[in-house]
Amino acid sequence: MGIFIKLEIDQEHCVGVKACGLCIKTCPVKIFRQSDDRPFSIDENEDECTLCTLCLTECKPNAIRLQKLYESEEAAGNHP
Question: For 15, 24, 42, 75, which has the most beta carbons within 10 A of its beta carbon?
Answer without folding.
Answer: 24
